[in-house]
Amino acid sequence: MHKFANPARFMRLSNMFLPWTTGLTLLLFAVGLYYALVLAPEDYQMGNTYRIIFIHVPAAYMAQFGYGVIAVASAVGFIWKHPLADQAARATAPMGAAFTALALLTGSLWGKPMWGTFWIWDARLTSMLILFFLYLGYIAVWQTIEDHVRAAKIASIVAMVGLVNVIIIKFSVDWWNTLHQPATLMRMDGPTIGGDMLAALLLMIGAFNMFFITLLMWRIQSLILRRRIRSLRMQIGGGQG
Amino acid sequence: MPEFENANDIYILSSYLAGAVVLVGLALASWRAKRQDENALRTLEKQVRELSDKQVT
After folding, report:
1. To 5 degrees, how large is the angle CA A215–CA A137–CA A11?
2. Is the terminal CB of chain B with fewer CB neighbours within 10 Å at N or C?
3. 3-state SS string for A86-123
4. Contact at CB, B18 and A233, closer than 8 angstroms
5. Which chain A residues are Cβ-neighbours of B12 within 8 angstroms?
6. pLDDT in tens, A91-107
């Protein structure tokens, strides 16, 4: 596994994949938005307002997926001292925070017309807000601790402990009585929507996923370059001194 | 395109606008950061080369 996590190899492979993932992201967004805004029919109860889910659900899914990536990468970095794992976790955090903010915002925009309120302190909404604060806390650890080894260790612990909240988010609609509807896609008895609505939702989730992968590669590349910049600065400082 | 003509249209449009702002913002920030790091690295590598040339001469 370490062989594939070599930073130089990662730079080479990611540069090879990036044009393809970028193209696929744009294609999936184009087709997904066409399905979401044109092909998917109007809902018989909610009218066109339900189309908010084509942004809200992928954002909420990516918010949780992003935290899962951070927790797994942190565990790998913490246990096996994997050279790229901490960088991957660190690169994911700002994206995860942005997706969580988007999920909270679009959730509020859904809540007002559907529930009559922008916000309510129910289990799903509150656990999503906690996820947002966990992301901010994780980012703050990296920003405030200068020693990278120590920052990685503390950030890993924050990430792994916070994973409990992702499990709470997933099951909050089953464990507590909430305004938020139960799971639509990930159910034992299959999705509760079908046809073009399901196609639009899956395409948009695919687009958000490819977007995440593309940006993650850019961001890890950036962190690798910064490490190289730091070591060169030290080299120049040593050479001049 | 669906006909948006009731009071809830503002919520649908705001959601898609927020999505666009967040995604484009993230993409631009990541792309810009990578470009800046690449430029900084190129400048430093040039400095290191110049420094080692000086030491040789």
Report:
1. 25
2. C
3. HHHHHHHHHHHHHHHHHHHHHHHHHHHHHHCCCCCCCH
4. no
5. 48-49, 51-52
6. 999 999 999 999 999 99
